[in-house]
């Protein structure tokens, strides 16, 4: 039977959320937003995005719970913020009430077990506030494995320059299409064919706190890679690798007790894998999405075009002392 219903619902949900997020970013984010440490635009967009996605999924796949990053407890105490959130939701869901919006957001509070959606309504908040890269990331998990990923990248340039939507289904490959344009023609995604490790390019986070970038630089030197890294926020990095813009993404642990959140990698990991790449943790273990809201059994993430993954792993383990 496949995942036709879930796939259609996920695409519709991410498209609607992307429209809301783009509207907030274009009209509310200003050059001094980060300088003033004003997080109100991303707060509104975060809540509105989760509300829109959960509403769409509830209508089309009500039997599948959602594990989201946000809940509405604090929002219930912020009348002014709630009013702005509702205003944004109504741009794509006309007539939505405050009570409905709060209820939709709270649908994301389900337990992470069995078969469920996991959602990051805005992955890459700093990128969003810089008017740079961010993503709406939705994954469908079943028994610890991602079966479907929908990754909306509003700021990533596509063929028509209007954002890119990546869709990956287990065993069916990864495709991309315009996120906002009327033409939804699909393009099959394939990882880079670069076989010479010295010619590979790293894709790294803009925010240094997200990964140990000094270790990454050391690993690059040991691998003989001199190319400057491609720096992008959020799970957009997975999409970039899936279409061949770079070959390696390292998210190295910044402390021993840190565990990655499932919504930070679910959609991106399957997008990368189904494009022909390989994704593991720093010990070479597959990512296990069946341990709750975090990747409890994994440390860090390594994604590559697969051709030299084992070689990368060996150097990573040498540098990290694992």
Describe this structure in words.
The relative contact order is 0.13. The chain starts with a helix and ends with a helix. Helix content is 34%, strand content 18%. The mean pLDDT is 94. It is an alpha+beta fold and 322 residues long.
Biggest sheet character? 7 strands, mixed
Number of strands: 12
Radius of gyration: 19 Å
Low-confidence stretches: none
Tell me the span between the first and last alpha carbons. Answer: 43 Å
Average of pLDDT:
94
State the secondary-structure class.
alpha+beta
Gross morphology is globular
Q: How many individual helices? A: 9
Helix content: 25-40%
Q: Please provide the ordered H/E string of secondary-structure elements.
A: HHEHHEHEEEEEEHEHEHEEH
Strand content: 15-25%
Order of strands in the sheet with most strands: 1-2-3-4-5-6-7
